[in-house]
Amino acid sequence: xxxxxxxxxxxxxxxxxxxxxxxxxxxxxxxxxxxxxxxxxxxxxxxxxxxxxxxxxxxxxxxxxxxxxxxxxxxxxxxxxxxxxxxxxxxxxxxxxxxxxxxxxxxxxxxxxxxxxxxxxxxxxxxxxxxxxxxxxxxxxxxxxxxxxxxxxxxxxxxxxxxxxxxxxxxxxxxxxxxxxxxxxxxxxxxxxxxxxxxxxxxxxxxxxxxxxxxxxxxxxxxxxxxxxxxxxxxxxxxxxxxxxxxxxxxxxxxxxxxxxxxxxxxxxxxxxxxxxxxxxxxxxxxxxxxxxxxxxxxxxxxxxxxxxxxxxxxxxxxxxxxxxxxxxxxxxxxxxxxxxxxxxxxxxxxxxxxxxxxxxxxxxxxxxxxxxxxxxxxxxxxxxxxxxxxxxxxxxxxxxxxxxxxxxxxxxxxxxxxxxx
Amino acid sequence: xxxxxxxxxxxxxxxxxxxxxxxxxxxxxxxxxxxxxxxxxxxxxxxxxxxxxxxxxxxxxxxxxxxxxxxxxxxxxxxxxxxxxxxxxxxxxxxxxxxxxxxxxxxxxxxxxxxxxxxxxxxxxxxxxxxxxxxxxxxxxxxxxxxxxxxxxxxxxxxxxxxxxxxxxxxxxxxxxxxxxxxxxxxxxxxxxxxxxxxxxxxxxxxxxxxxxxxxxxxxxxxxxxxxxxxxxxxxxxxxxxxxxxxxxxxxxxxxxxxxxxxxxxxxxxxxxxxxxxxxxxxxxxxxxxxxxxxxxxxxxxxxxxxxxxxxxxxxxxxxxxxxxxxxxxxxxxxxxxxxxxxxxxxxxxxxxxxxxxxxxxxxxxxxxxxxxxxxxxxxxxxxxxxxxxxxxxxxxxxxxxxxxxxxxxxxxxxxxxxxxx
Lengths: 422, 422
What we know:
Two copies of one chain form a homodimer. Chain A has about 425 residues and is of the alpha/beta class. The first copy, chain A, has helices at about 15-30, 45-60, 65-70, 75-90, 120-125, 155-165, 200-205, 215-225, 275-285, 315-325, 355-365, 390-400, 405-410; strands at about 5-10, 35-40, 95, 105, 115, 130-135, 140, 145-150, 170-175, 195-200, 225-230, 240-245, 255-270, 290-295, 305-310, 330-345, 370-375, 380-385. In chain A, helix 6 packs parallel to helix 8 (about 215-225), helix 9 (about 275-285) crosses helix 10 (about 315-325) and helix 11 packs across helix 12 (about 390-400). The radius of gyration of chain A is 23 Å and the shape is globular. Residues about 405-420 of chain A have low confidence and may be disordered. The interface of A and B includes residues 17, 66, 72, 80 and 83 of A.
């Protein structure tokens, strides 16, 4: 039986007429290699942003059910246009909405979770020798049969979920970058394209600034054992394979440096009562403020007060301060809208000591002040002043020899080349 | 039980933010008068044109199934935005796609016909005290469950079909004109807004240039006994009621003058063989050319050849000549891309003699040459040179005293006022 290939094209890969035709040609090429092909498409270019703007022109707080109805149109447009282009290339294609494709979700509008993929219509389309195009980012709620969306970047998750439902070996995610890099190539000139990354590393990277893959899609892929091939829609070279750790041949100590810009909030003179932190973060969650790093310094002396610091997305800062002013749990709220978070990620950190010390020393040598620190077994994150982020990223990238030249010298065996290409 | 009101808003009535809010306010006002309200919306402003253009950028012959998937997004956008606006006015609204609203059609993509309205979700929404918004122009094919569209102007038909399914008394069609006029007010300064028009008259008017209501929606309304109230979304005054002839109090001899611009094709030296006309119009139909008027002059002398003339939409002219050049049934094909059709319509013509003579005499007095004539029991159409259309319309309008002043003098009884308003 023919292999099933699931391909996903992001918004920049279907933005204008030539992009749509390029994506169609990629899809057709996969079909002509004898595969059964399912392609998941995102909305074109800025379509989703424009639809969101239209909603906010009408209403300050657009109804979430109706936002989903509105936003889900963007991917349908991409799919219909791509089906037309494929048809002109001599192949049969059929486009399906998320609902038609059987993407059944819960009913949390604007951030629904996929409960099940009932892929009957996809399978029927493939059985009729058709290329099947699926509108990404959307589904239908199992109970109310309403259109739902999966949140920003949800098309990655759609693609991985379909790959899992169809038993595909790999899910190819086509994007405007060539793969996952050892650092942002815009900051670090010798950043290296990583041939292999483990799911756990990718999860840490996605949550600490690497925008190339959506966090939930990586989780879904890990949980269902679907390898992700993250690659460029503009060139043929293989990109980065994201896969289980036991499939990677090597475990470099540090794989990549990532960064993100955020805002910092500090509550000083926090009342020393049980449940204060719960009240703070509960109230923030109710206001839909996503909190990233949290640090609390509990004083040793009993009658002192604690300080609590956390970071939030810059866009959420005013909402966060509104919430804090409303609940009155400390002496004062201080904010810094311009901080940056620099993280190093690597599965090998588990078995190597001294990574944290080397990071802190490297930043110290450059006189970059570390405001906050948080760690996981395979990640160390440091909050620094926003304007020092490029320096910090470059310094750490160099200190751990992550650059392309360094690797080429160290790794003549070719171990870094991907083991699986499509 | 509360009355059910079905309202339909056209593209110009939801074009920008203020329009959407105005439509929402109209809908809310109907709800606050104690009605159960269903509103059918068209795509905003030029949305459909833009989507069609996008399709033709991708493909010279876009797949019809995919065109439907593409075009159906426009009305969904309108509905979602309007639901948000209604919510901000303190009412609950739910938007439904054509498929969700149970508009079941055949599978003729881009020109599907409604087979059935399974209005369960609409009724459920009304029962929950919600305003129900339905995306016009679209449905779902009963067999393949694909998205279908009803053709240009199909939202009128959606609204009438829903009104019929819900047993509503009247279907209100909101548009950018104040109603149906005795002639195009842009050509005739004293054109009169008609308070009442019969279904048959409206059908003749819609098919002869009055763009205010889609032909099929009037047919559907006549067949199901649904009165249409055609009115302005920009003012509160009542518009025109379209209803069964036995409900109209009066039967004026002539109700209105309409006009349309077309192209004319003449085949000279047509071979005198059985089936020639069938071949000509069969081939035109296969090429999707809509033929309007047809005239054939069969010569009395047996060895002579016939001439065949017909009119088509100007956009279809080149397709029509391609077809004729391909089938070779006559000596030559002559075309005139700029003709106009002026029609007078009136249910009273059935019982009044001399209307045709008066029309021809009126045009003759202005030295307007009549190129083709066709008649129905309640309509006379004359094809004239395009540049003489405004003259012809004004002359006939005046000759039959259709202007506002004329009627006011003749009709002090107030009989012309609509008997039903909402």
